[in-house]
Amino acid sequence: MSYWAAGLVVLLAAAMAGASSYLISKSIGAERQRQRQAFGAPVFQQVGIMFSVLLSFVFSEVWSEYNIAAQAISHECGALHGAAMLASALPRDTGRGVNEAILSYGKTVIAVEWPLMAKRQRSAEAAEAFRVALDRAARLAPAQPADLAIRSQLLGQLIEAHGFRETRTFQITAGLPLMIWIVLIGMALVLDGFLLLAGTEIRSHMFLAAAAAGSTAAALVMVRMLDFPFEGALALPEGDFYKLVGEVGRLTT
């Protein structure tokens, strides 16, 4: 979801609530308004408390998952860079093939996998490029015992990077269940509905209803934008992989 779309949703929610409040207040008399307020205000408070508790829990969860995805990107690139430095430390340029495979993987992630992640898809090409890097590292033939230790550490870094890759790609489709969205949107509509029943003075209540509906919509839109960390205006960037490609490229020259 883009910022424009998010802003449009919030404005539409506020405008519809304000217009509904105005029309409802105009259609009934003062006595009915007082009865409506006496009925709507207590229910509004109870539903508001339940909604705020649920929303705070959901927001905390999606924010945590968003940060997990961001950390997985950083740790994956860090482990790959560490593997590349270990490969370059091997004598007689024996680790060059591993570094070329890591470089190819980084470029594939940037060019192929990142656009696919915005569509909630993984890249088989990137997975194959990573497999090639791991295969080349596993097939290194150490010339001396010290080289064996380096190869062991190199494989450890690649295995660690693979774990972070799996975490990153898992977040592509790990959104909130549909039932949670149904409950959230349903409670927001109930909350706004009872808010329309809780006012007496037309103008002030119209602005109150618009502000409350707009705020509720903004909170839900923010949850939606954070729910899938690789799409929309808040999509995580591929900057760490660009940095990785540059650093590994310098090691292979």
* Residue share in β-strands: under 5%
> What form results from the Cα inertia axes?
rod-shaped
Gap from first CA to last CA = 41 Å
* Rg, alpha carbons: 27 Å
**How would you spell out the order of helices and strands?**
HHHHHHHH
Number of continuous helical runs: 8
Q: Which structural category fits the helices and strands? A: mainly alpha
| Overall mean pLDDT | 86
User: Sheet bearing the most strands, described?
Assistant: none
- Low-pLDDT parts are none
Q: Would you report the number of β strands? A: 0
Assign a percent range to the helix content. over 70%
Q: What would you note in describing this structure?
A:
This protein is mainly alpha-helical. The protein is built from eight helices and no strands. α3 runs antiparallel to α8 and α4 packs antiparallel against α5. It is rod-shaped, with a radius of gyration of 27 Å.
List keywords for this structure.
single chain; 253 residues; 8 helices; mainly alpha
